[in-house]
Amino acid sequence: MKKIKDETGWKLLRTVLLTCGLILILFPLYLVLINAFKTLDEAGRNFFAFPQRWNFDNFIELFTNSNYWIFLRNSLKITVISVGVILLLVPSVSYAVARNFEKRYYKTVYFYLLMGLFIPSQVIMLPVTKMMTKLGLLNHAGLIVLYAAFSLTQGVFLFVNYIRGLPYEIEESAQIDGCGVFGIYVRIVLPLVKPMLSTLLIMDTLWIWNDFMLPLLILNRAQEIWTLPLFQYNFKTEYSFNYTMAFTAYLLAMLPMLVIYCLGQKYIIKGLTAGSVKG
Q1: What is the rounded distance in angstroms from the CA atom of residue 216 to the CA atom of residue 230?
Q2: Helix, strand or coil for residue 277?
Q3: What one-character DSSP code corresponds to residue 188?
Q4: Confidence (pTM)
């Protein structure tokens, strides 16, 4: 009887905690959604109430009276190219390290990259900005290079552990059949690491699309190269504190990432779990 009571109490506590967490997550999304469809006067009268009618004027004004499409194109360009470079770079580096881990050079490279996990990003922001300024890379190309470099730390850590857990006998059989290193990597290794590739794709897409700090440091010199987060950050100046317009921009920026995360959530969990237990 005591055991049943303990289990019931734990289930009740778990339900309460999950409900509170769900409210904390969904309530800001609710505020963004309802206020995106309000006029400024209506939002001022009752910020938390449902809109009296679904007003699409904010969306029309955002699409027609701003440079929204330019900033959207910039964000898409940076995200797609950065993720493409990352998907090419991280698995290949990880495979080279994983299959030569007993050699001092590759082990040193691995632990050197791993050190990036323990360095706070705030510490390197000033040196990174100065370096990119001297190299003349305060543009989209420079930002893409930084994203590819920063992704190596966590990406290599996950992929090396995963690849080292794969059976090497398959690769040996391919070598006996005359397959080279590149052929083994493309035909055998990449199909086997699809869960990790999916995890890397989704996580880095979410990170790059929503990132604010690096674009602020690298792209803030000219408005025409801003990304959507920079556009939203400067909303107050452009629209004189029109926060319903700001919520409209937030909603439009969130929707693609919400869809991607909902569709790929199982791959993130599967990839991270597999990468943590293999080694």
Answers
A1: 7
A2: helix
A3: I
A4: 0.84
Give 246-261 pLDDT, tens digit per residue. Answer: 888 888 888 888 887 7
Q: What are phi and psi of 215, to 5 degrees?
A: -60, -35
CA distance 69 to 276: 40
Q: What is the pLDDT of residue 222?
A: 85
Q: Which residues contact 129 (CB under 8 A, 6 or more apart)?
A: 217, 218
* Separation between Cα atoms, residue 171 and residue 231, nearest integer Å: 49
3-state secondary structure of 161: helix
In 3D space, the residue among 146, 163, 82, 154 whose CA is nearest the CA of residue 115 turns out to be 154
The answer to whether 184 and 171 have CB atoms below 8 angstroms apart is: yes
pLDDT averages per 10-residue partition of the chain, 279 residues: 64 87 87 86 82 85 84 95 96 94 92 87 88 93 95 91 86 85 90 88 91 92 90 66 80 84 69 50
CA-to-CA dists, residue 154 to 52, 64, 111, 150, angstroms: 47, 40, 12, 8
- The pLDDT of residue 245 is 82
**Burial zone of 149 (CB within 10 Å; 0-12 exposed, 13-18 middle, 19+ buried):** middle
Q: Name residues whose C-beta falls within 8 Å of residue 35's C-beta, 6 or more positions apart in sequence.
A: 43, 47, 243, 244, 247
Q: Which residue has the tokens 């701003």?
A: 66
Look up residue 225 and give its DSSP letter.
Answer: G
Q: Which tokens belong to 75?
A: 């964000």
Amino acid at 127: P
> Rounded to an integer, what distance in angstroms lies between the CA atom of residue 144 and that of residue 124?
17
Answer whether 199's CB lies under 8 Å from 267's CB: yes
Residues 143 and 214: beta-carbon distance below 8 Å: yes
Question: H helices of 46-168, where?
Answer: 57-64, 68-98, 104-114, 121-134, 140-164
